[in-house]
Amino acid sequence: MLEEWRDSPVVVTGGAGFFGREVVNVVREAGCEEVFVPRSAEYDLTRETDVDRMYREVRPGLVIHLAARVGGIGANQANPGSFFYANLLMGAHMVEYARKYGAGKFVGVGTVCSYPKFAPTPFREDSIWDGYPEETNAPYGLAKKMVLVQIQSYRRQYGMRGIYLIPVNLYGPGDNFDLQTSHVIPALIRKCEEARSSGADHVDLWGTGSPTREFLYVEDAARGVVLAADRYEGDEPVNLGTGSEVPIRGLAETIARLTGFEGELRWDSSRPDGQPRRRLDVSRAKERFGFEARMPLEEGIRRTIDWYRKQCGAEAKGT
Fold first, then answer.
1. How far apart are alpha carbons 203 and 195 in whole angstroms?
2. Helices 297-316 and 248-259 meet at what angle, rounded to 10?
3. What phi, psi does 11 have (nearest 5°)?
4. In this prediction, what percent of the chain has a pLDDT beyond 70?
């Protein structure tokens, strides 16, 4: 893969993060030796001058834009304005300066939060404009969706080679386990692990447990992004997922079983559930660039639990 880009720099924004590290690994495995990851201390992507300087210094052939201000339901509720502003500016600057500096191809990575709250299930890419997103994460989802608008507009006006991908909820080793900002799988793993270790008889969980979610293992997602960068040239957005959904209640029971927590799962229905259902139609990704997810959910969760336990052990030893 990526033979076209092996002799030019590849920029991966967000490449030091959970998802980005895996994308960088796959890009390097494809033979691209010059991979540049802009760090926020040196390049604040919300600042136009920093983005201009980054493109001027690096002159990338391929740009994969993953960087985002993001979190779970609680973080989205607490930061709707800052999440909207930061993600809007990062996307606008990154696409505009890719055009100005003649980057060969731009890969915009969006979010399943962009879909309408009551989109028909499974979510098809053609329904992305058929309603307003779920309120708790709408500002973030709409800001990321503007990258799609910009890419399509620049393709029409300037002939820019840009594509847009919509990954479903990601999980896996290296995820964010901070309970204030994490997503559901790492939050459940941490709560169950800490309850098991402390001997607690219950854990408190948000919502009713009735919504469904689809989850994509981070290594599968990274492979999908790089496959698309290599093989896809269309202007239509493309979902990345597994095509399978699981109720949050069932997910919590699975994580409790895999962690060995035998206490009660207490659901707080005063807390928001978020979008009622999430499941993607993943046929376009298979048809356009041959992507299919490989990791079974339970095995992926098991690997994530193992990583978290090793990380906790290393922290306890001070290493």
1. 7
2. 50
3. -95, 130
4. 98
Overall average pLDDT of the 204-210 stretch: 93
What's the pLDDT tens digit per position in 93-115?
999 999 999 999 999 999 998 99
Q: What is the pLDDT of residues 120-173, one digit of tens each?
A: 999 999 999 999 998 888 999 999 999 999 999 999 999 999 999 999 999 999
The three-state (H, E, C) secondary structure of the chain, written as one string: CCHHHCCCCEEEECCCCHHHHHHHHHHHHCCCCCEECCCCCCCCCCCHHHHHHHHHHHCCCEEEECCCCCCCHHHHHHCHHHHHHHHHHHHHHHHHHHHHCCCCEEEEECCHHHCECCCCCCECHHHCCCCCECHHHHHHHHHHHHHHHHHHHHHHHHCCCEEEEEECEEECCCCCCCCCCCCHHHHHHHHHHHHHHHCCCEEEEECCCCCEECEEEHHHHHHHHHHHHHHCCCCCCEEECCCCCEEHHHHHHHHHHHHCCCCEEEEECCCCCCCCCCCECCHHHHHHHCCCCCCCHHHHHHHHHHHHHHHHHHHHCCC
In whole angstroms, give the CA distance from residue 179 to residue 207.
15
Give the confidence band of 37 by pLDDT, cuts at 50, 70, 90. Answer: very high
Domains in the chain with CATH codes: 3-171+215-244+278-294 (3.40.50.720)
What is the structure's pLDDT at 316?
A: 54
Find all residues with CB under 8 Å of 53, minimum gap 6, and list them: 43
Sheet with 35-36, edge to edge strand ranges:
35-36, 10-13, 62-65, 105-109, 162-167, 238-240
Active site residues: 140
Lowest mean pLDDT among 161-170, 174-183, 254-263: 174-183
What is the band of 213 on the pLDDT scale with cuts at 50, 70, 90?
very high
